[in-house]
Design brief:
The chain is an alpha+beta fold and about 280 residues long. It has four helices and 18 strands. Helices cover about 15% and strands about 40% of the residues. It has an 18-stranded mixed sheet that branches. The two termini are about 20 Å apart. The relative contact order is 0.17.
Length: about 280
């Protein structure tokens, strides 16, 4: 099995192309490949391009626990860079990718290190995210997590997010309460979690607990959701820089809450998985 490894602000993915003879990936294989000690190590696998009736390229996104994600902003930027590296798209050429979370449009700029993705529209509607209870916009509601109660907003940009705004945030906070919130009963499909700090009208900071992956240095869909929530609450304008431990992403928010995300991608390595890897028991 051949792979290409990239990271987007420290959020690393392996691209595995079915054209290289990979028919499918089992949950067990995904977990092993992504394992930091027993495998190559990554925050997930981008399996594609696969056939699509709606776009030139289809993509499946797998978390390191073997579950499938509907959408990933960083994953989409990485996959777009991979397509550019393979000369399947050209610089400054907008193209479409179909994911389980909907269609996106992507552009790779000259040199490949900067990629823009139109992520689609953010919604705060409970039935779309989903969040349990009556149909409503999920804004400034209370939620209990362990020994604390938080005020949260929920959103979807093709995948679910729980955004908690606080005066101060930290890695420790995300690691302590993120796993509790990810699996909270309010979220029937689990959720990604962002702890949000407003820096000023143009800048926010987030710490991220990602569904199926855990603590994450950066996330494109988390940046999109957190910026949209901050804008919906009137705390920021429509152009926001999102600061994360891994780096910064630029978010533009349209009047209908369509999101345009721009950020960096770095090519790390390419190689082959040895068959011996899958003979290992741990």
């Amino acid at each position: 099995m051949k792979f290409w490894k990239y990271h987007a602000l420290g959020n690393d993915y392996l691209v595995m192309d079915p054209a290289d003879g990979i028919a499918s990936l089992s949950v067990e294989k995904i977990r092993l490949i992504c394992h930091r000690n027993f495998g190559v190590g990554s925050d997930g696998i981008l399996f594609g391009p696969i056939p699509s009736t709606k776009a030139p390229f289809g993509l499946r996104i797998f978390n390191p626990d073997g579950s499938e994600a509907e959408k990933s902003g960083n994953g989409l930027r990485i996959f777009s860079r991979y397509l550019w590296d393979q000369k399947r798209v050209e610089s400054d050429q907008e193209f479409a990718i179909e994911t389980a979370g909907g269609l996106v449009r992507s552009t790779v700029f000259v040199g490949g290190r900067t990629v823009r993705v139109d992520m689609g529209k953010v919604s705060f509607q409970s039935e779309l995210i989903p969040v349990v209870g009556p149909k409503r916009e999920v804004l400034n509601e209370r939620i209990k997590a362990g020994d604390r109660e938080f005020e949260y907003c929920a959103a979807t940009v093709g995948n679910p997010h729980c955004v908690i705004s606080l005066p101060e945030i930290s890695e420790e906070l995300a690691k302590r309460y993120g796993p509790i919130l990810e699996t909270h009963g309010n979220f029937p499909r689990r959720t990604n979690v962002q702890f949000l700090q407003i820096l000023d009208r143009k800048n926010i900071r987030i710490e991220i607990w990602e569904r199926g992956a855990g603590y994450t240095l950066a996330s494109g869909s988390s940046s999109s959701a957190a910026a949209a929530v901050a804008h919906r609450l009137g705390l920021v304008g429509d152009h926001v820089t999102v600061h994360m431990p891994g780096g910064m992403i630029s978010i533009e928010i349209a009047a209908d809450y369509s999101i345009r995300m721009t950020g960096g991608v770095t090519r790390v390595a390419e190689g082959h998985l040895h068959p011996e890897l899958f003979e290992t028991n741990y």
